[in-house]
Amino acid sequence: MKPMLVIASVIGLLACSPQGTAQNDANLNTAHLERMGFVVESADESSIAGVYEVITDQGLVYVTADGKTLIGGRLYDITGDEPVNVSEVAIQDMRRNDLAQIVDETIYYKADNEDFVITVFTDPTCGYCRQLHSNLQQYHDVGISVRYLGWPRMGLQGEGYEQLKAIWCADDKAAALTAAKNDQPLSQRSCDHPVDRHFALGSKFGIRGTPAIVLPSGEMLPGLVPAQRLLGQLENGQ
């Protein structure tokens, strides 16, 4: 069975090194994960004795120390007044760390009075992505800058993928992205584009559609979020 099917069957967590022993803890046997096609990026002891929190190229999973049992689902700390989603904390850390590695690959629309920077996975063929982009000034007016990454909704094929490749190969990527979202023609150029990497990263984050907004905290919001509502979430540290 393919890893993605296994994750789905056990309520997998697509969140977030070379293939081999996990970097953070050499006591975990990762051979079975690797045999299934997972690339293990890191592993740490979880809050459950004998269970490891493992970040792979395809998401966050939990594995017993002998590496023989894969556990899907979210862990909650229920010792306080309110349950704390421990898994979501790990996922948000992963998103922040991963995005920091590719900040130079984003298309950056900066607000004059920048207070917050969000990262948006986008597809120029997506209606809600176009709506977000057409309202970009509303985000800028409340101090929100936008960094775009490409995430073709139909996968690594089709019109969205071809447009995203052309955008990231353009000399003026910001102008090309705006043009594509306004149905203007793009110059078809070839280059060593990062769109495939962006798609893999978004899939790892758990994206199922566009736009997908990642906040500075690492929290991810699916769909179009109006500027004022988004500002409220950012100001509340969400």
Automatic annotation (TrEMBL):
GO cellular component terms, A-Z: periplasmic space
Stretches assigned to the Thioredoxin-like fold domain: 112-231
Highest taxon, organism lineage: Bacteria
Compartments, as annotated in UniProt: Periplasm
Pfam (any one): DsbC_N
Signal peptide stretch: 1-22
Disulphide bond isomerase DsbC/G N-terminal domain residues: 31-86
Keywords: Disulfide bond, Periplasm, Redox-active center, Signal
Main location: periplasm
CDD domains: DsbA_DsbC_DsbG (cd03020)
Function noted in UniProt: Required for disulfide bond formation in some periplasmic proteins. Acts by transferring its disulfide bond to other proteins and is reduced in the process.
Family: Belongs to the thioredoxin family. DsbC subfamily.
UniProt protein name: Thiol:disulfide interchange protein
Species of origin: Pseudidiomarina piscicola
High-level lineage: Bacteria, Pseudomonadati, Pseudomonadota, Gammaproteobacteria, Alteromonadales
Gene transcribed to yield this protein: dsbC
